[in-house]
Structure formats: structure tokens, C-alpha cells
Amino acid sequence: MTDPLIVSGTHSNIDSLRQPLVSGSTNTQQQVIPQLANLGDTGLDVLMEFLFGRKENPATWVDGKVYQVLYNSDSSKAKDFLQAYFPNGIVPLTSECGIDYSSVQQLLAASDFQAADRMTLQKMCELTGGAAVQRKWLYFTEVGNFPATDLKTINSLWLVHSEGKFGFTVQREIWLSLGKNWENLWEKIGWKKGNNWTRYPNEFTWDLSAPRGHLPLSNQLRGVRVIASLLSHPAWN
After folding, report:
1. Tens of pLDDT along the chain (237 residues)?
2. What are phi and psi of 223, to 5 degrees?
3. Are the C-beta atoms of residues 32 and 21 closer than 8 Å to each other?
4. Contact yes or no for 173/123 (Cβ under 8 A)
5. For every residue of 137-168, which 3-state class applies, written as one string?
6. Can you name the residues that pair with 193 across neighbouring β-strands?
7. In 10 A of CB 28, how many CB atoms?
């Protein structure tokens, strides 16, 4: 049964885009979402209908893209829809330590990747406790003690809201594909060029034109041991 907040569009353009959104390949869906967004309220209706139908499924980056379009639209109807059905976003913000990840979710939904990166490090420091919060960086020994649940929440937020480009599991996949060679990883994800480290923050790329795995920075400025602990964490086994 269609929810009363959702009214299907009748325009021929809408009908020709609805089906590929629901059952097309991810590449097709990626192209259809902005086309629907550009059709105004009727296009947003279809996006709301799609997201509502996906409500009980684990969120993918396609859901994340639809959510971001609705979240950043000027439509009061879209805002009411999200508040009614997705008040905490589309990724379950589960934590074993009572950490509130809603600020990370909101920044990523707004595509403010630089602020989301800073907030991610802050939340990881909160996971460790008062000393890490004060110093604002992590020891590699602390990372090994992170609850798997929390790391998975952070990773899912980044994955879902970056078209699958960013996140710890993306970095891990690239690292493993390179035979765990750190120098090759730095070059591949844009953290180093030749002998020169990418300078924070202005030389990093804070949007989706960045190389795959570019974000989050994971305390990158303090050497390899923190990210080694992150990418080797039991959460990914």
C-alpha cells in the first residue's frame, strides 16, 4: 500500500525513469537519480516512493544517494517524509559504547566530507575515552580495542553516503589488492605523490572527484600504525 505522503508522478518522463530506478543496474540508477531530482516535486515523489519501499532493507549507496537528494532539497514535503520515516538517517547508528553518530550522518548527508572527517576522528576519540578526546588523536593500541559494532557503523555511513567510494573497507580492499604495500596504497588513494605527502587540509580532495579510498583520513598524519590497526581490525573478518 502506498503511503499517503507519497504521490506518484504521472508525467511520461517520470514513468520512463521509475522502472530503471527500481530495477536498473547501479550505473543506470546513478544516472536516473539526478534526472528525477531535476524534475521537481514529481521526481522527488518517485525518489520518496523508492526509499520508502527500501525501508526494511540494508542501506546501499544508491539509497544513500536518494537520501542525500531528498535531504538537500528545498522541498518541505521531502523534509517531512524524511523526518517521519528516516529521522536518524538510513544507516542504523548502533554503538556498543553509547556514542551518538548522528552528527557524522548529517555531515555526510550534506556531502560536507571535510567536516565529516573531523567529526569521525572526534567520535573515534570518544570511543577511546577522555585522554584521547583531549589530545584529539589516537594511539594504534587504542584502535585495536574499538568495538566492531562502532567501526561498522562509521564505515557504513561513509560507504552509503559516498557512492561507495569512501570508507575503511574500501581502503582495506585496495590495501589487500596491493599486497599490503603501504607506499603503493598512499599513492593509490591520493595521500602521497612521489616523495611528497599530501598536505592537510588544502591538498586533500573533499568531494567525490577524489580517488577511491581517499577518505576518511584515519589519523593519517600520525603514520602507518593507526591505519594498520584499523585495516587489520577483527570487524572486517
Report:
1. 344 344 444 456 898 999 999 999 999 999 999 999 999 999 999 999 999 999 999 999 999 999 999 999 999 999 999 999 999 999 999 999 999 999 999 999 999 999 999 999 999 999 998 899 999 999 999 999 999 999 999 999 999 999 999 999 999 999 999 999 999 999 999 999 999 999 999 999 999 999 999 999 976 666 799 999 999 999 999
2. 90, -175
3. yes
4. no
5. CCCHHHHCCCCHHHHHHHHHHHHHCCCCCCCH
6. 196
7. 14
- Taking the model in full, what pTM does it have? 0.93
Q: Which residues contact 181 (CB under 8 A, 6 or more apart)?
A: none
Contact 158, 108 (CB under 8 A): yes
What is the C-alpha separation between 206 and 152, in angstroms, rounded? 22
Q: What does the block give as the cell for 118?
A: 573531523
102-236 CATH, one of 1.20.1250.20, 1.10.287.1080, 3.40.50.2000, 1.10.10.1770: 1.10.10.1770
CATH of 12-85, one of 1.25.40.620, 1.10.443.10, 3.40.718.10, 3.20.20.370: 1.25.40.620
The three grid cell numbers given for residue 150, joined into one nine-digit string: 562502532
Residues 6+ apart with CB under 8 A from 164: 61, 170
Tell me how far the alpha carbon of residue 82 is from its chain's centroid. Answer: 17
DSSP string of 36-77, one letter each residue: HHTTTHHHHHHHHHHHHHTTTSPP-HHHHHHHHHHHTS--HH
Q: Where are the domains of the chain?
A: 12-85, 102-236
